[in-house]
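Dear colleagues,

For the upcoming journal club I promised to circulate an example of a predicted protein-ligand complex. I picked one with fe (ii) ion because it came up in last month's discussion. The inputs are reproduced below in full, followed by the predicted structure.
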Amino acid sequence: MIGKFAIRDGKVDYAIRYVETARYKAEKAARRALFGQYRNPFTDTPEAAGIDRTVANTTPVWHAGRLFMTKEDGLAYEVDPETLETRGRWDYYGALKSETFTAHPRLDPETGELFFFGYEAGGLCSTDVAYCIADRDGKLVSEQWFQQPYCSTIHDFAITERHAVFPIFPTTADLDRLRAGGPHWAHRQDLESWVAIMPRYGKVDEMRWFKGPRGVSAFHLVNAFDDGDLVHLDICLTDTNAFAFMREAGGVHRAQHEIQGGLTRWTFDLTKPGDTFESRVIGPPGDMPRLRDADQGRPYRSAWYLTVNPQGGPRCRAGGRRSPSP
Ligand SMILES: [Fe+2]
């Protein structure tokens, strides 16, 4: 669904509508569920075969005068910003070859370009990743594919003024597991993480790969920026996957409050050979960061994210009392 607050003349109107994806229309017509488990088409009914599975429910994205609803398992759907009617699946006038479009593209505040990617770009469980740029008029001007080391959930990436940065964390998909009716994602505590860095207007074969710690996980990146020949990447990092359903599928059984992590700065020195980098914690654990749009890909002074007091232990406060601290 997509909801909208319209603020006009000191009044606020609210509207909400379903995003009418192919899946929504098929199930509405059938008047029953046709699709099975989360991102497992082998659990669908026969009537669902060949129908786009995405529910386009993660992030609204504005670019070049168009509003998109995105989810990383399919292409974006364009939505009319006034009526919230669904206009249809967005493939850049047939130019985009990737089957998927990230829910976290990055908009350069000066050039107006949209930098984005799709993983599983060539199909279910493929290691194909498409790296794409749409210009300020919304035209697809670049699409290059590369292979990631294993089929991971690349939920977010980052740009700097000169680089594109792709972090790879070992929560992986497996076709045999899906065929057996299993979950799409399972966390692999034994696998290394990776970061790929390339010139943002360069070729994917210029990409450098850096090896990160084993078993770590992140869904969102706060920002990245250049500092001479250094690239800094600020990550909401945890020592395993923070979602129980993904880590338990990989045999990692830990209580939620035992998950460790922190806002972590990874710094890559591009003048040095090798695949290592520096790491330091710069803030308490948390996620769902929000950056000032003008700071995208630039050195920045502040950003916002949700956190808990790491000394406070697990806690759930019911009722209407407001907590004085984050
Ligand atoms: Fe997200």
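Two points we might discuss: The chain has two domains: 1-109, 148-310. The two ends are 29 Å apart (CA to CA).

See you all on Thursday,
B. R.
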